[in-house]
Amino acid sequence: MKIIPLQSRTLALLGVVLPLLALFVYVALRSGPLAPVAVTVSTVEARPISPSLFGVGTVEARFTYRIGPTFAGRVKKLDVHVGYRVQAGQLLGEMDPIDLDDRIYAQEAALKRAEAALREAQARQAYAQSQAKRYEQLLAARTTSEETVDTKKQDLKIANAALAAAKEELVRVRADGAAVVAQRNNMRLVSPVDGLVVARNADPGSTVVAGQSVVDVIDPQSLWIHVRFDQISATGLAAGLRARIALRSRNGQSLKGRVLRVEPLADAVTEEILAKIVFDDLPDPLPPIGELAEVTVSLPELPAMPVVSNAAIREVEDQLGMWHVQDEGLRFVAVKLGTGDLDGQVQILDGVDIGDRVVVYSEKALSKRSRLHIVEQLPRVAK
Questions:
Q1: CB within 8 A of 187, min separation 6: which ones?
Q2: DSSP string covering 258-294
Q3: Residues 6+ apart with CB under 8 A from 168
Q4: How far apart (Å, rounded) are the C-alpha atoms in residues 346 and 45?
Q5: Fewest 10 Å CB contacts: which of 13, 228, 277, 359?
């Protein structure tokens, strides 16, 4: 009589436990530690890639003209401001000449005196020459003495020396006058080219030293970008390659350009290669000097080789490689990487073959014992 209630109780207990056990096993296999890992896979393909090189640089002017005096002085006037367009030969300002105008007048007077002295020396030399010739004729006619002829010849030599000295003095005075005039002309700050004023380093009344720039003028047609590229990825960088330029102030607008030259000196501290990039067409308005620019240079296309997404690269036990999906399960294979492009594709020089399937993304870390659930796209995790 007691067996029947016991069996009923046992069956009832089993009826509760077994579904719970089945649910536990199901949950463990589907979402627990034994659950398959959702992954996306990709097939290794052989195709060419077009690598690109990315760098950051600054807008600079190839030709900057720093206009200032050749000796110390005070700025008398300055007629231009930053942003002004100027023409070649245009007067930008002037230094205070102080006593240079008076010195020019003095040199003009000295020049007139030297010219008068030269004319006098020429007249004396012509008279002494005629006298020497006349007395030689008289000596031939025996109407004068040889001593008198020698005296006239000596007078001619003195006149010739005086004439030579007068000529040298005239040259000296002219040179001194030209030097003062040139010095006076250097007081005028003149633009050597058609350009744009980018800096005004002094104001009227300021005293500047010799060689100090008062106004900086650039040639707008000479704008270029001074760019730094990582030496590791700069293989193939050369003059003439096409480039895309994104100025920070242009909100992502892409401008066309090209590599003008690669600098022969690299930066040993930052391990970067320096290059100059020029615009195909100068932007309007011109970018500010010193503005940052992002430059992408298109390198020559590489021949077809095994290529995968660089998202498939993993580091396991200090080895770079990828998870190879096989029929019998997962296998981690070490690979040797080649060149990559900015689209995230990278060449595989050794480790996998064309047609192999590799894991690109996984919802969690993988191991050799991981069970896979291949999906087209990993589900997004709610924040």
A1: 69, 73, 76, 94, 95, 96, 97, 100
A2: EEEEE-SS-BTTTTEEEEEEEESS--SSPPPTT-EEE
A3: none
A4: 11
A5: 13
Top mean-pLDDT range of 28-32, 346-350, 362-366? 346-350
Give Cα 169 to chain centroid, integer Å. 53
Percent of the chain with pLDDT over 70: 90
How many CB atoms sit inside 10 A of residue 310's CB? 15
Count the alpha carbons within 13 Å of 64 in the hemisphere toward its beta carbon: 13
Locate 21 and state its tokens.
């056990």
Q: 197, 83 in Cβ contact below 8 A?
A: yes
Helix (H), strand (E) at residue 39: strand 37-43
Which residues pair with residue 254 across a beta bridge?
246
Model pLDDT for residues 298-341, shown as the tens digit of each residue: 888 888 888 888 888 888 888 888 888 887 778 888 888 888 88
Which residue matches tokens 């704008």? 223
* 150: amino acid identity, one letter: D
Query: What is residue 71's three-state secondary structure?
Result: coil
> For 40, which DSSP code?
E
Note whether 322 and 307 are within 8 A (CB): no
User: For residue 204, what pLDDT is reported?
Assistant: 92
252 Rama sector, left if φ>0, alpha if ψ -120 to 50, beta otherwise: left
Pairing of strands 272-279, 223-230: antiparallel
CB count within 10 Å of CB 309 equals 17
- Highest mean predicted confidence (pLDDT) among 31-35, 118-122, 326-330: 118-122
> Is the distance from CB of 215 to CB of 67 less than 8 angstroms?
yes
Pairing of strands 254-262, 319-326: unpaired
Q: Cα(132)–Cα(155) distance, rounded to whole angstroms?
A: 8
Provide the token pair at 126: 């012509």
Radius of gyration of the chain (CA): 46
Look up residue 162 and give its amino acid: A
- Residues counted in the chain: 383
